[in-house]
Write a structure and sequence with these properties.
The chain is flat and about 65 Å long. The protein has a domain of 37 residues. By secondary structure, it is mainly alpha-helical. It starts with a helix and ends in a 10-residue tail after the last helix.
Length: 113
């Protein structure tokens, strides 16, 4: 593999990592606003805390292998939700750009490439 190819792949990887970091920080900021201003969300979180205590009691009734399977399921569910949040954020960015292009606020030919 040539030096140019290695450099290009490294640059692409760094760009993806930077973009992912930006998306994660923006999602965190949005969720922070939801936490403070949405009473339904706050109520849901409080109910979830109560339910978590019940789930912990139920999990203790299972052997360690069964507990591990259930915890792994929930970990994967959270991981999947993170991918979905990132996808929704990216779609929002794309939609916002298309909207601004449609209004004529942004023009592609104004961007130096």
């Amino acid at each position: 593999m040539g030096e140019q190819t290695k450099w290009t792949e490294k640059a692409a990887r760094n760009s993806r990592n930077s973009w992912k970091s930006l998306i994660t920080s923006r999602i965190d900021a949005a969720l922070e606003r939801v936490n403070r201003s949405n009473s339904e969300y706050i109520e849901l979180c409080q109910q979830q805390e109560k339910d978590e205590k019940i789930v912990d009691v139920l999990l203790k009734k299972l052997d360690q292998e069964e507990q591990a399977v259930i915890r792994q399921y929930y970990d994967k569910e959270i991981e999947k939700e993170n991918y979905e949040l990132e996808g929704a954020y990216m779609q929002g960015v794309k939609d916002g750009i298309r909207f601004l292009l449609g209004l004529g606020v942004l023009r592609v030919n104004d961007w130096p490439l």
